[in-house]
Structure formats: C-alpha cells, structure tokens
Design goal:
Mean pLDDT: 91
Structural class: mainly alpha
Order of helices and strands: HHHHHHHHH
Helix content: 55-70%
Strand content: under 5%
Number of helices: 9
Largest sheet: none
Number of domains: 1
Radius of gyration: 18 Å
Distance between the termini: 23 Å
Number of strands: 0
Length: 215
C-alpha cells in the first residue's frame, strides 16, 4: 500500500468525521427549531462527533474502504437522529425539511470549504488548498450519497414521507436496508453516477470562486 495514499485517506477520514457531525447536527437542529425536542433531549444538537458515531457507517466501512481500496470510492454515514413528527406543526412538510437539513448542511460546507481553498491560494498554502478542495468534494459526495432512497439514508426518509409510509413499516423495511446499501455501493455504475454528480457540482462551485481544480 502506498503510504501517501494511506495518509491522504486518514486525513480525509478526519474530514469525514467532521462532515458527518455537521450533517447530523443539521438534522437535530432543524427538528428542534421546528418543535421536536427529541434529539435535543438526547444531546444530539451537538458538534461533538462522539454522540453521532455509527459503528458501521462512521468507523468500520470508511476505514475498510481506506485500507482495502485507498484512493477509491469513499463514503459513510452517522447514527440517525431520532425524530418524532407528531411534535411538528406540519408533520409531513416539517419531516422532509428535517431530513433534507443534513444534505443541505453538506452543500453549505462544500461552499465554505471552497472559499477556504480560495483563501489558501491567496496565502500560498498548497497544503491548505488540497485539504479544503478534497474535503469540499467529499462533502458534496455525502450530500448526493445521502439522497439515495435506501435506508438508513436521508433519501429513503424523504420517500417515506412523500408516499405516507408509516414509521413502523419503514423501520421493518430498514432492517435490510444497510445490507442493500453496502451491496449497491459495490456496483461500478452507482459509483460512477455519484462521482459524476459530485464532480459536476464541485467544479461549478469552484468556478464561483475562480478556481479551476483538476477533476
């Protein structure tokens, strides 16, 4: 294994932890603001990574991807934020708002990180530029990855709300979702699709800041 790829992968993993923390914080904060204090009462409106860790999605899968396929496809997820839609004023609409708050947070972070990359160019700091560009791209990947309609990802929650599926039925289906998700991630066509969406949006945001990174 190329030590440089391993080091880059571990640095990106630290970025993943931060991005997943902000992602789940976005869900919890939005739910709290819309009237549901379930996550707040469990300490999930927090930027402490430890309260959001998922043994498989945050630790096992990302580290396996780093060590088994360094430089290849890389993603993960955190422990889902608990939500009680009965506390919302508009249960279906507010539920969708809470669900999309995570991907929105990743999109916002991608833009902020691209701005920091622009600052890195001004400061003549290639290391800062590289880390910010790579983490910005990873944030966009997480945004699109989480919109896939497969449990436990956010896209499945949006689909559940749109079709009016009960939480009981969803959770019964979601028991098999993680295995399906891991299988889907092994499909090259899915990896290429996510990479295309990510790269296209990443280059577009870079263009806003006058940056032309190598795709």
């Amino acid at each position: 294994m190329d030590p440089r790829l391993l080091v880059s992968g571990l640095i990106l993993y630290l970025g993943l932890l931060a991005l997943l923390t902000f992602h789940e914080f976005g869900h919890a904060w939005m739910a709290w603001k819309l009237g549901d204090d379930t996550a707040y009462s469990q300490g999930r409106v927090s930027l402490n990574p430890l309260v959001h860790l998922d043994p498989i999605g945050t630790i096992a899968l990302p580290l396996l991807l780093i060590f088994l396929a360094p430089g290849g496809f890389f993603a993960g997820w955190a422990r889902p934020v608990p939500v009680n839609s009965d506390n919302f004023r508009s249960p279906r609409g507010d539920d969708i708002m809470v669900t999309l708050a995570g991907p929105w947070m990743n999109l916002l972070l991608a833009i902020v990180l691209m701005g920091l990359a622009r600052l890195g160019y001004a400061l003549h700091s290639p290391g800062m530029v590289e880390v910010c560009l790579n983490t910005s791209r990873l944030s966009l990947l997480l945004c699109f990855f989480n919109l896939l309609p497969i449990p436990p990802l956010d896209g499945s929650q949006v689909a559940r709300a749109l079709i009016g599926m009960s939480y009981e039925t969803y959770h019964q289906t979601a028991r098999y979702g993680m295995f399906l998700l891991i299988l889907v991630l092994q499909v090259p066509a899915m990896q290429r699709t996510l990479d295309t969406w990510t790269t296209t949006s990443w280059l577009a945001i870079a263009g806003w800041f006058g940056i032309t990174p190598a795709a």
